Each structure stands twice: as C-alpha cells, then as structure tokens.
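Dear H.,

Thanks for agreeing to be a second pair of eyes. The structure we're designing against is below in token form, covering all 697 positions.
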C-alpha cells in the first residue's frame, strides 16, 4: 500500500517525479483531461443557469477504475497537475471522479520539476482553487456556446465542417483585415540623397544622408525636387558643422514568456507554434540524461510573467561569474506586464550547470535548439548591457543639411551569448565614422539620389500574429498555438514561406461573421472577455453571472442573424471555364484542400477539377507556362505544364527569366510527390486486401 499517490497529466512527468520520492509513493498519469463537455451536443444546460453537463471522456473507463483503486489504497492523494487554469480544472475534475476519497485529496503545484521543488510542494499542499477552476469553466462554457450556436449557420450557408470561435474568428479577422490593407495600399514615391564623402586627413570614406534645409527636416517626393536640390549643391563645400560623441547602452531582453518564446523560436529556429509548445512540454516534463536519469530541463512553459526566483538568480550569477567573469554579470529584475497573471516564473532552465552543449547527445535536434535558446536567453537576461561608442555629425552643403551616424561596439556584455531577433529586416550595424572635427571640409566623391516607394504593411507570420494577439489582449499563453493551428486546419488561412494569407473560404466566413455578429467577433469584445475571466480567477466576479450577461445580447444577435440569413443563398462564383462533360460554365467551390472547380449541374453532372494557378514568367527550359502546385504539406512548388512529357523543369522557387535550373532540387521535389502517390497506392492496396479477407470470412 502506497502512503502517497501523486496524480499528474503525463507519463513523462510521472517518470521524472518518481525518482525524487521514496518507495512508498506511487506516481500515476491521468493522460490529460478525464472529463469534458460531450462533443455530440451543446453540453450546457441553458435553461438551468448554464450548468455544464460533464461526461467521462470516452476510452478512459479503465484508467478511471485504476485511479479510483489507487486512491482507495493511498493514505494521501496529491493532485499535481500543471500550475495554470487548465491544470487546476483537471485537478477539480479528478477530485470529482475520486469523490469517495475526498478527505484524502489535496492539491500541489510546482513551477519546475526538480527534487527541491517537488519535495517543497508535497510539504505545502493546498485546496483546489475554485476561483481558478471557475475561470476555466467560464472560458469553456462561453466558447462552447459561441462555437456550437454559430457554426451551424456556416454549415447551412457555406459548407459543412466549418467552425466559428470567439478567439479563432478574431484571429482570422486580423489576417483578413491586414490583407485588405495590403490590397488597398497605394505606394507613395519618396527619395533619399546620399553623399559619399572622404575625410582627407584619415583617408576614410563614409556616407551621409540628406536631412533638410536650414536645420529643418525636408521630405522629398519627386524627381523635380531632387534635381533642384542637386543643382543648388552642385559646387557646394561639405563642411562639418557639428560633432556629437556619446555612449549608448543596449540592455538584454527579459527571460521568455510563452508568447516571446513562440515568437523567437519562429524567428530563429523556424518552428511553428505547435512544434515549439510540444518540444517545450517535453523539456519541462523530463528528458533522460546520461548519468543523471530523467531531468526536467525547463520551468513551466505556459506563463506571461518574466519574474524569476531568487534561487535561479543566484545560480545564474554563479554560472556567469565562473564562465564569463565579473565584468559580465549584473543582477537584473524585470517588471511583469500589468495584465500578466504572474502565477509563476518566466521560462528558464531548471539547472544553470546543465549547459546545452554538454547534453546535446541526449536531446533530439529540436530539443537541443529550443533548450539552447531558452538557456542563453535566461543567462543573457542576468548580464551587463552592451556598450557602444557613438558619433553623429551634421554636414552643411550651402544651406542644405546632411547627417551621418556611426557606432562602434566597445563592450559586448550580454551579446556575447544572445541577441534578440526581430520581425522585420535585421538591424544593420553601423560602422564608426572617422575622427571628425567641426569646420573640417570633406571631399565629395559622389552624390547618389535614390527613388523608393512606401511599402504596404507586412502580412502576419505566426510570430507577429502572436505578438498582435498579446498586445490586443486577445487569448492567453495557452490559447495562441491551438488557435493558429485550428484556423490553418480549417483552411481559413494558408502559410506561404512564413506569411499567413487568408483563403477565399476564410474571407467568406470572416465577412459573414463580422457582418452578422458585430458585437462578438471584434477585438475589443474579445479582450474585455479575457479581463472578465481574470476577474473570476481573482474571485471578483461570479462565473455564471458573467455568462448570463453575455448570453442575453448574444441570443438576440443569433436570432437576428438566423432570420436575416434564412432567405439568403450564397451564390457560387461562376468561372469562365465550361464543363467538358455537359458544357455548363463551372463554378468555384471549397473543399478540404481549398478552392476547386465544379459543375453547377450536380448531382446529374459530377464533374470537378482542380484550379491550375500559373505565373507570368515562362519556363526557363522550354518557354512554356509554369504552374503553381502544392505538396501534401501545402508548400508551393513551380512546374512546367509540359512536365513530365517533354520538359522536366520543377523548382521550389518562382523562376526568373534566364535563371539556371537546379536538377538536384528537382529530384528532391519529385521524391516528395512520389512519396505522396506511393502512400495513396499502398492505402488502396491494403484496403483491397482487407475487403478480400472480409469476403473470404
């Protein structure tokens, strides 16, 4: 008989915890949620004050019996699920399942799976936090109501299998709105004038940029304006009018939160949000390390706090002093965003002395990359700033002003270990200017006017969308990955390279939802709801009261939308391609893999065909039309329309006129497409075999 029973969510977490505790302790896994709302119906009793109708999850009957038997034998049951709202809700559901043993049940949490943290948690058990549970219930019930009440409208008017959701629909709206901004964008012309100058004393060259006239900044918008300025400074002397020297500090970024980890893993490692969270989960729950056993390598990965414990601060100090020296260490504290829940620390390594390169052989490629990113970011957060010497000079050319800036890195500080990535173009390091003095005359080597045009806002990437959702207060750390995964799976958006682009289906669904559910599918409402969930978690609001206040206006909006859409039929867009079976003009439809052409005479005529996209650049090999196709993973590739009959051109990259063809790249694409077709053949064969066996029996 075990004195103690500890219940966690996963076997990996259970294995890591087992080694910290004595033989009289049993550690088992609930395999995630034990109870949930049913999938087959709404599962919320609206007539009975929105009471959730929880059921045991199908397939978990044997596990529940086993948990009950273990709980009956134990003296104390510790529910040690994750330290967030979802974890608290799982704990509450487990307690409901084990109700007959409720006097034995207690709750423990730890932010990191280390011996000290686990043993401390066992010594400090608490009751399940019902306010936190209620906040999770409120989210689950509200999202179930929105999804299950609105989605049927999409099935009727667009196609079956679609879904609407409070957060996912707003995420789609942001992407659609950005695409509309890009489509409506009108580029504006602007010019810069660069002067290539030489300091005769040092013989060094540098570049100065046109700034304005008589100390006032001037923007140049036309060639005529450029020509006038060039004429005015045709014979000018370039005199240094002012020199400013200084010092600039660049501070390190704070330890990771969930969203900053997702953003940085996307920028630097090319990870999707889903992959980042999966790899982080494995690092948190434990990895088998040579001579150390199973070790939880990072703290809990769902957090919006940058706070770190004093113990972690001390261990970082010890490591930095011994590895880099005292001149690199600085004890730093970071302010957590006022909207953050701050329930636990930022994401950091659990052991400062386990360096990434030391355990590289024990980790998968992805685990090593993410662990190194987390480790270096944390260590850098406790290091001194980088220091630059800076110089800025003003240069007079008659009455016109030019400016030049330069900087030189004199102390690397934290940058010896880690530099934060950016969403846009990488920062250009400016070189140092020559030692210039006021009233010196520079030699003009060349004037270089450059025409440019303003650019539309960039499309969202997974990283920049997470950043936008966080800034607007939409969703929470645990929701970003599933939200973006869902809208990709629903084909509301597509990913090209790293850019998120709305599909035609996404645009149609977004237009319908934003038109008919104005008060729900908007940024302000979604952010306000998140604040209310926080208030419930803090015990400031009752969760059913919040749902009641939401449901009244929502029900009216739903009834209004249903009436307005009753006689509305979404007309399929007609193409200019006749059906080659019956002659009717084919229409555009949406299927599992996106847009396709179908005969409007269905079901009499069932003809359908894919839409072939082409580009305006001819095939570099034979001059024929180049088509855009997609792999199974939705990656674009470019192929000659005559492939494979008379031309073998195929490439990942959009061809450019006159470019050389890469046969090795072609082989790689062929292998991927052959894998797909061979898998289909194998599936057909195995299905046929199964049918034959069944018939014989």
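And this is the sequence the design step returned. I haven't edited it by hand at all.
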């Amino acid at each position: 008989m075990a004195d103690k029973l500890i219940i966690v969510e996963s076997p990996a977490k259970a294995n890591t915890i087992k080694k910290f505790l004595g033989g009289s302790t049993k550690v088992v896994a609930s395999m995630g949620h034990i109870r949930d709302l049913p999938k087959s119906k709404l599962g919320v009793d609206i007539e009975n004050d929105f009471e959730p109708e929880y059921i045991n999850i199908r397939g978990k009957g044997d596990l529940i019996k086993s948990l009950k038997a273990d709980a009956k034998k134990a003296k104390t049951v510790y529910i040690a699920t994750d330290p967030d709202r979802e974890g608290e809700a799982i704990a509450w559901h487990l307690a409901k399942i084990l109700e007959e043993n409720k006097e034995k049940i207690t709750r423990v949490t730890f932010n990191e799976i280390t011996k000290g943290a686990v043993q401390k948690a066992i010594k400090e058990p608490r009751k399940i936090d019902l306010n936190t549970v209620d906040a999770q219930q409120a989210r689950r019930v509200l999202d179930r109501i929105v999804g299950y009440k609105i989605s049927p409208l999409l099935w009727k008017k667009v196609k079956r299998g679609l879904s609407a959701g409070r957060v996912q629909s707003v995420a789609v709206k942001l992407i659609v709105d950005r695409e509309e901004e890009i489509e409506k964008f009108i580029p504006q012309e602007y010019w810069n004038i660069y002067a290539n100058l030489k300091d005769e004393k040092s013989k060094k060259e540098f570049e100065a940029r046109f700034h304005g006239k008589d100390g006032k900044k001037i923007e140049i918008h036309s060639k005529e304006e450029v020509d006038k300025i060039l004429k005015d400074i045709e014979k000018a002397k370039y005199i240094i009018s002012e020199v400013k020297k200084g010092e600039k500090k660049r501070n390190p970024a704070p330890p990771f939160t969930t969203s900053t980890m997702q953003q940085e893993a996307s920028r630097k490692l090319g990870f999707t949000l889903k992959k980042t969270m999966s790899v982080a989960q494995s690092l948190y729950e434990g990895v088998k390390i040579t001579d150390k056993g199973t070790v939880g390598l990072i703290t809990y990965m769902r957090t919006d706090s940058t706070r770190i414990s004093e113990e972690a601060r001390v261990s970082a100090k010890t490591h930095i002093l011994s590895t880099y020296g005292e001149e690199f260490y600085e004890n730093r504290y970071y302010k957590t965003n006022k909207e953050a829940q701050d329930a636990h620390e930022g994401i950091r390594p659990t052991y400062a002395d386990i360096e990434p390169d030391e355990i590289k052989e024990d980790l998968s490629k992805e685990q090593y990359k993410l662990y190194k990113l987390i480790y270096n970011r944390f260590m850098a957060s406790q290091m001194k700033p980088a220091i630059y010497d800076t110089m800025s000079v003003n240069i007079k050319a008659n009455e016109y002003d030019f400016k030049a800036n330069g900087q030189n890195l004199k102390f690397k500080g934290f940058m010896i270990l880690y530099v934060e990535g950016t969403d846009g173009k990488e920062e250009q390091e400016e070189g140092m200017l020559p030692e210039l003095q006021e009233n010196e005359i520079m030699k003009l080597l060349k004037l270089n006017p450059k025409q440019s045009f303003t650019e539309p806002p960039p499309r969202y990437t997974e990283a920049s969308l997470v950043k936008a959702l966080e800034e607007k207060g939409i969703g929470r750390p645990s929701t970003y990955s599933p939200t973006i995964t869902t809208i990709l799976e629903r084909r509301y958006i597509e990913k090209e390279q790293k850019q998120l682009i709305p599909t035609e289906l996404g645009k149609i669904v977004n237009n319908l939802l934003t038109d008919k559910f104005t008060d729900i599918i908007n940024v302000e409402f979604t952010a306000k709801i998140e604040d209310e969930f926080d208030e419930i978690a803090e015990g400031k609001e009752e969760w059913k009261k919040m749902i009641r206040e939401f449901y009244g206006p929502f029900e009216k909006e739903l009834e209004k939308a249903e009436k307005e859409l009753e006689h509305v039929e979404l007309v399929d867009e007609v193409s200019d391609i006749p059906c080659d079976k019956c002659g009717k003009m084919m229409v555009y439809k949406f299927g599992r893999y996106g847009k396709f052409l179908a005969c409007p005479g269905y079901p009499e005529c069932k003809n359908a065909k894919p839409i072939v996209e082409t580009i305006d650049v001819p095939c570099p090999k034979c001059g024929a039309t180049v088509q855009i196709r997609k792999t199974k993973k939705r990656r674009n590739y470019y192929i000659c329309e005559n492939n494979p009959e008379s031309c073998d051109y195929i490439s990942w990259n959009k061809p450019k006129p006159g470019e050389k063809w890469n046969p090795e790249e072609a082989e790689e694409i062929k292998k991927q497409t052959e894998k797909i077709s061979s898998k289909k053949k194998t599936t057909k064969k195995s299905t046929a075999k199964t049918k034959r066996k069944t018939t014989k029996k």
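Two observations from my side: The two ends are 49 Å apart (CA to CA). The first strand starts at residue 4 and ends at 8.

Warmly,
E.
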